[in-house]
Amino acid sequence: MIDWQQFEDRYSDAIASENYICSADEVGLILVSGADAREFLQNQLSNDIDLIDESSLQISSYSTPKGRMLGIFRVVRVSNGYLLVITRSMVMPLMQQLFRFIVHSQVTLADASDYFARLAVSTDNPQVIAQPSLPAVTNAVLQTDSVISMRLEPLASQQRFLLLCLSPAEAISLWQGFATSLQIAGYQSWHLSEIKAGIPSIYPQTSESFVLQMANLGALGGVSFKKGCYPGQEIVARMQYLGKLKRRMYLAELETDRLPEPGDELVAQGKQDVDGSGKVVDAEFDEQGLCHCLYVAQIAKADAGQLHLLKQPATRIHNVELPYSLEN
Fold first, then answer.
1. What is the pTM of this model?
2. Which domain holds residue 289?
């Protein structure tokens, strides 16, 4: 993939919110293959793997027996198994966790990140959206011998696509074709769009911090309550049917020049020590320097505007509406 790396290194790191193409080099890929791959994942993940085929994808997660998430990812079925599309920094930690449960199953795990050139497109341009290399509906997948193209959750008028290319030459050709209609941006733009779309990620700093409902995975279709058991299933089901959700994920805007990091603590007003009120999930700046932040917190305190960042007590947290309903 050296040719692709040399090609993408020549281009802009500018931030954009619409009509751009960028390298998605911080997206990681885990290939799960082998005769028992489907059964293995069905027994480990929160969603029903049988609901997807090579033309569709789903959001899913992997948790500890106590229901604390070790990873959030999109699952894509491919000819030789399944790809888990995940934050690059979580590829090895998640593989290590999954490997513990393979036992005698015919399952192989591999870091497939560097086998694919990854690029992302966000646009409202009808001519770009109609390109035959891009899927026509949300959560659809188009696959050829060398390209996997995914259509992800839209953001306002922007349709969002992630493309994985086995051939550097084909990746460069696709890039050059899209770049005639789109501005070239850096990965920060794609990261920002994921946050504004309300799509959570797990990082090493937040591993085992959240039960999936806290991160809105129920609203995002990231869990099945009809499939069989998986690690943490009892906790997830109890919260769904018997408990009242006391924490959830919020989208907020912050005026700050210091980007919060995943795992940064939120505390009640007046508190100067960690009090369990909440944690930052993810954050990124936009082209105007405004910080967009996902955080999980106690609902009562967040709704009342009673929280602040422990490391930035003077920074005001302004909650904004998520682009999806929490009633799903």
1. 0.95
2. 246-328
